[in-house]
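Fold this sequence, please.
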Amino acid sequence: MKMQKTLGLLAGVALMPSAWAGTYLDADWAKQACDAWNKSETLTQELGGDNWAGNNGGRGYKIIRLYREKCGPGSAVQLTISQQDGKAICTYGGKPTDEKLNDDMDYLMWATYDDWQCMGRGDWGCGAMGAMMTGKLNFQGPKGEAMGVMGPFNAFLQMMDDIPGDASQCPN
């Protein structure tokens, strides 16, 4: 009887969404975001080709770095997006590489946790354009290029709510 109660308690804990979730916007989260990117037709198809993924300075990839405002830029994670067969494919998600960002082709984005969640849910005023205009999303990089791909940019921001993570602490 005692064993059954213990197993029942453990099963209940295992079903709690935050029980096993990692830290929001940490390296593991970024790997999951990379996997989610590659499963999104909107991101892989609509950002492929010369119009977005092709703006990579001849190096073959773009860098996107993200962090929560509370945790600071030292906590950023990175997604590396490569152009492969006309598609924008995430080839790396994790801690940032040592490479310096190029504002002509790479992106640095940060927001509060609440604003990341608002953008992820697509709440009113939290779409890509609204988030940039209201300051919910802080942004460095080629703004004109981003404005030209608002549909896929919205899809990217909506991933922010799809990948679970505990926001009570900052990434290591």
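The first strand starts at residue 61 and ends at 68. Strands lie at 61-68, 77-84, 87-94, 107-111, 138-140.
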